[in-house]
Design a protein that fits this description.
This protein is of the alpha+beta class and 813 residues long. It is built from 27 helices and 28 strands. It has a seven-stranded mixed beta sheet, sandwiched between helices. Strands 18-19-20-21-22-17-28 form a seven-stranded mixed beta sheet.
Length: 813
């Protein structure tokens, strides 16, 4: 996916550009209303420009490649996902497809110059599934409708089972000669009639799925179940119409209705449990309201669709509604729930002048909000994009299970045929029922669910605690790390650094250089720059910054001039470490400081001032590092700060392996050396200047609220300020991998035990259906253990301190 071949502009303007891929699927799409999605204004509701998440304003029709998400109905297994992937890849203009059966979602990268949404959604319909935009309200309704249909199908099958069991009871208890053939035939006819609506309504999805797969020349998990049902019903029907024939000795309506009831009960429970455990993504996607109250020109508020909101509008948010935009409170005071977005579990107060963020909930009172950012520019949209990307990924273990499931189904069909051939000379009716039992009991639903359900459940649990999983593969790797490397500033230490003292050559220039340093520093998001910018905020207006260059691991180089209205020539200054300014010998070396210097020439740099920094180690850091050591994970500290500050923090936290004055390149070299030595290395950084290091580690965390989500190179993004989330993520990753292995082991053990029993005729069809249903439910229930809240202890977050009094020290030249 390095480069994308986009059709020439001339082709996109051709009147035949959209007609060259039209098929019979496109005709059906027009009748179903999918063509309404071809309006470019609709594309932003379920997608974004591919690889261009930071675009501030754009016209949808001008974007050459789109990244969209759709929800899919009727998909239950890995084979279904493969069918949909193949159908979409065959559509011209589709660049990339990822389909997840567990999440029932698909991600597509497509080119509007070659294909439109109605065409690739129609391609999904053509292979027997239904697709809707993942962020549309229809997606919620589709999920709820699926749940209700599953419940009704199970209730009907259970009712039929009870009726058929009532009719079968006399034949079970009758002694020879007690039950006349006329009465037995009447009971068989009654059972046959009752089974017909059950097969049509309750079993319809299995038959339609099997027929769909036959048309696509595939073998899916619906195939053996449907064959088992058909064989059982046909054998019993022949016994009903021809009781004197080879199949007339016994009918199996009771077994048919029992295993259908058990099977549908298991599927209903599976849907319910999966929505509760792995459904965190849909809960996040659907946090925003469909409509909101907007102030009109007459000052009155009217409810409008969310798509009609623009920056500068004034909205009225009612209690219980989610804030749909990023903005500022104009009127009112309320409490907001920002747990998902910031990791802060307690409600926060929001009054006039305070900022609110999209996706948070208004809890207590009506407020009026001025809109600043909407749609894809909000922090909420960035979080959703990260979670969407993770939801459609397939971990390595899941890919292995998917590869095994297909051939395994073929083996099942062969074993069923072999069983029927073996038992046919003994009893033809029993031979076919044994074959049906083999088909039913060996359906590998549990095998395909084992990994993705556990992974998505863990990702949902982490998301609820403020940890976003960008890469599901990261959970597998994190479970096996033996070394975890930490950055210092903003990670092991508090993000709120402060300037404790300023040193200058001439005290009369103190406020001048203080303002200059602040003017340069406010162009960076680094915690050190934030401290310097806040320290000189009162005098920052004296300077005008013309250009700024940030050198990762070193500091800032800027061109500035005095904001006095004079024609003074601009000057070049540097703000950064001692090594960067290369001339701070007259200042103390045993303190953590940042230096301001005048760059007369590259060889002539004159230091103007130094700013000593004070930072405190996070209160939970010692406990977190101790917990990692108990897990057998080695801890290292790599920092770009000077040796005195790094050694002090390392000593306070008991870290023996540390290195100071590290550039991003040297950090990356240290990590690669550890990997070459056979270590599995994780990295925890602030995501601001550690991009190459985060990408180079086996698994990585971007820590802190200041992380630019769209540019993060990490596998996990920690939104809150609690370092303990890193430890708890490691623990949950190990637990998740244990659950996956348990699920895979149980699936293998279940088949190893049940297949021989079914082939030996020791497992009737109803028991086979019960075993198949219980295997899937057990896998999902085992994964549900990952839903439990993380046992976080409240980290001691220091209160905001008042700004320290300015202390200026003169340094002898």
């Amino acid at each position: 996916m390095g480069t994308l071949a986009v059709m020439p502009q001339a082709l996109s303007q051709s009147p035949f550009a959209q007609e060259q891929t039209v098929s019979d699927a496109d005709v059906s799409s027009a009748n179903s209303g999918l063509h309404l999605l071809d309006d470019p204004a609709e594309w932003v509701s379920f997608g974004k420009p591919y690889g261009q998440q930071q675009i501030q304003a754009f016209k949808p029709e001008d974007i050459e490649v789109w990244d969209s998400q759709i929800a899919i109905e009727g998909m239950y297994c890995a084979t279904c996902a493969l069918v949909i992937e193949d159908a979409l890849r065959a559509v011209p203009g589709i660049v990339q497809v990822d389909v997840s059966a567990a999440a029932k979602r698909a991600r597509l990268v497509w080119q509007p110059s070659q294909v439109l949404p109605s065409q690739w959604m129609a391609a999904v319909q053509k292979v027997g599934y239904r697709a809707v935009p993942a962020r549309d309200a229809v997606a919620r309704e589709m999920r709820q409708a699926q749940y209700r249909k599953a419940l009704w199908r199970w209730l009907l099958a259970t009712f039929c089972m009870m009726q058929v069991m009532m009719y079968a009871w006399p034949s079970y208890n009758a002694q020879p000669g007690d039950l006349l053939m006329e009465f037995e035939r009447l009971l068989r006819w009654a059972s046959w009639v009752i089974c017909i609506p059950m097969l049509i309504f309750a079993c319809g999805p299995f038959f339609s799925g099997a027929w769909r797969d036959l048309r696509n020349r595939r073998v899916s998990m619906d195939m053996p179940v449907a064959l088992g049902m058909i064989i059982t019903f046909i054998v019993s029907t022949i016994g009903t119409f021809s009781p004197e024939g080879i199949f007339g000795e016994e009918v199996f309506y009771d077994s048919l209705t029992m295993f259908v009831s058990f099977l549908l009960a298991g599927r209903w429970l599976e849907i319910r449990l999966r929505d509760r455990t792995a459904g965190a993504l849909d809960a996040v996607l659907n946090r925003l309201p469909d409509s909101i109250e907007k102030q009109a020109s007459d000052g009155q508020f009217h409810r409008v669709a969310l798509r009609n909101i623009a920056p500068g509008d004034v909205l009225r948010i009612l209690p219980g509604e989610a804030f749909p935009v990023d903005g500022v409170v104009l009127k009112g005071r309320t409490q907001a729930d920002e747990a998902l977005l910031t990791g802060e579990s307690r409600p926060v107060s929001r009054a006039e002048g305070d900022r609110i963020i999209a996706g948070s909930f208004n809890l207590t009172a009506v407020v009026e909000v001025l809109v600043e950012r909407i749609g894809g520019q909000t922090k909420f949209a960035q979080i959703v994009n990260l979670m969407e990307s993770a939801s459609t990924q397939k971990p390595r273990l899941a890919q292995l299970a998917d590869k095994v499931a297909g051939p395994f189904l073929v083996v099942v069909l062969v074993l069923a045929i072999a069983s029927a051939v073996y038992w046919w000379p003994v009893d033809p009716g029993r031979a076919l029922m044994i074959a049906a039992a083999v088909l039913i009991v060996t359906c590998p639903c549990a095998l395909s669910l084992a990994t993705p359900v556990a992974m998505l459940t863990a990702a949902g649990t982490l998301a609820r605690h403020g940890v976003l999983v960008r890469n599901l593969q990261g959970l597998e790797v994190l479970a096996s790390i033996d070394t975890l490397v930490f950055d210092k500033t903003g990670t092991l230490t508090r993000d709120g650094m402060q300037v404790s003292r300023m040193s200058v050559l001439d005290e009369s220039d103190a406020t001048l250089w203080q303002g200059l340093a602040a003017a340069v520093a406010k162009n960076s998001m680094h915690p050190v720059s934030k401290a310097v910018a806040g320290f000189g905020l009162s005098w920052v207006s004296r300077w005008e910054v013309l250009s700024v260059e940030e050198l990762s691991g070193h500091g800032l180089r800027a061109q500035v001039r005095a904001a006095t209205g004079t024609d003074e020539a601009p000057i070049w200054v540097r703000l950064g470490s001692r090594a960067f300014v290369a001339g701070a010998n007259q200042w103390q070396e045993d303190v953590q400081a940042v230096y301001l210097a005048l760059e007369v020439s590259p060889a002539n740099i004159q230091v103007l001032a130094s700013f000593e920094l004070d930072e405190g180690v996070r209160s939970e850091a010692i406990q977190v590092l101790g917990g990692l050591r108990q897990l057998g994970v080695g801890v290292q500290l790599l920092s770009g700060d000077g040796s005195p500050a790094v050694s002090r923090v390392a000593a306070e936290l008991g870290i023996e392996d540390y290195k100071s004055e590290c550039s991003p390149q040297s950090k990356l070299e240290r990590i690669r050396a550890a990997q070459a030595a056979g270590k599995c290395v994780g990295m925890v950084g602030d995501g601001l200047n550690d991009g190459p290091v985060l990408a180079g580690a086996d698994v990585s965390f971007a820590f802190g609220r200041s992380v630019p989500l769209a540019r993060a190179q990490s596998d996990f993004v920690v939104l809150g300020d609690n370092l303990e989330l890193v430890l708890q993520t490691v623990l949950l990753a190990r637990k998740t991998l244990r659950v996956v292995r348990q699920n895979l082991f149980f699936s293998a053990l279940y088949n190893a035990v049940c297949i021989p029993l079914a082939m030996a005729g020791l497992m009737p069809a109803w028991l086979a259906g019960l075993g198949m249903a219980l295997s899937s439910v057990l896998v999902v229930l085992n994964a549900a253990r990952l839903v439990k809240p993380l046992p976080l202890r409240a980290a001691a977050i220091p209160d905001e301190q008042s700004v320290r009094a300015l202390g200026v020290t003169a340094v002898a030249a």
